Amino acid sequence: xxxxxxxxxxxxxxxxxxxxxxxxxxxxxxxxxxxxxxxxxxxxxxxxxxxxxxxxxxxxxxxxxxxxxxxxxxxxxxxxxxxxxxxxxxxxxxxxxxxxxxxxxxxxxxxxxxxxxxxxxxxxxxxxxxxxxxxxxxxxxxxxxxxxxxxxxxxxxxxx
Length: 160
Known about the structure:
The chain is of the alpha+beta class. It has four helices and nine strands, in the order αββββαβααββββ.
């Protein structure tokens, strides 16, 4: 059960999260877009990942991920995970964050997070220019690198 004090409609707007994808070499990536809700009768989170991101292939190969929210004092970690590529950087080390085993999935969480959400991917939806009814949305895609939406069933929530 999600804590009712958690402002689910504000958390992605006011905070960034660190998405962890991958099992063998899990990669932390900062995201700023997402949502919580109920999909197909299950508690769910939706996250958006561009195909140009290193994490994208990890999301496609592994049908699970964790979503981790950190307090403001970890802003530098969020910046590292949002500006460096896991292809050539050990972001765990550079961001000074710690892998913590998840309880229900193989992908780890971030030990320093005050909230970690373990998810199993239920669906992937590739967005394209034709999907947007509001043409202003295309301004977010000058390189035409449209996000893929990953809809994950929430299988565990850890509040620290």
